[in-house]
Amino acid sequence: MPSTPAPTPSSEPSSAPDSPDLPAAAEPDPVLLDTLQHEVAVFARRAEQTRLGGVGQARNSMDRAAYLLLNRLDQEGPMGVKALAAGMGIDSSTVTRQVAPLVDTGLVKRTSHPEDGRAVVLALSPRGLARLEDVRSSRRALMTQVTEGWTPQEREVFTSLLTRFNLSLSDWMASTAAADAQGPQGS
Q: Average pLDDT, stretch 120-143?
């Protein structure tokens, strides 16, 4: 069965066209922004409570960090720790710490870089791909249940907007980190 990767936010700008159903950007409504931040906070709490872990036997069987790492390796192919960290917007030490149990359990394998035998490349193992597919299937079932009364268009619009929100948040975080790295101007 071919792999169907889940959308993964990256640091690249969104290429999604503006929806013709949405009005052009205007001065944000403070009440709407308060509601948005509240709903994002509620979403974060619910996501953490359920861990959006799916249904059935695979429910809550893989933590968020492992899922995101395995998903990235599946989508992008084998890569080094630095490239994986950069693509996920986290530091290399965090990736090293998070990938260690995945290597220990055989979900990820370490191999030598094909061009530089001294460098290590991380790759999804066949066992890791099978496990990822089980978790994806379980999570698809959960998303089906949670959005049961939604039309296909509503699911598509929500997914598009959530992806756009995640990309914007990622861009904001990257620009904030870059500004922090530069330090105070004019000192």
A: 92
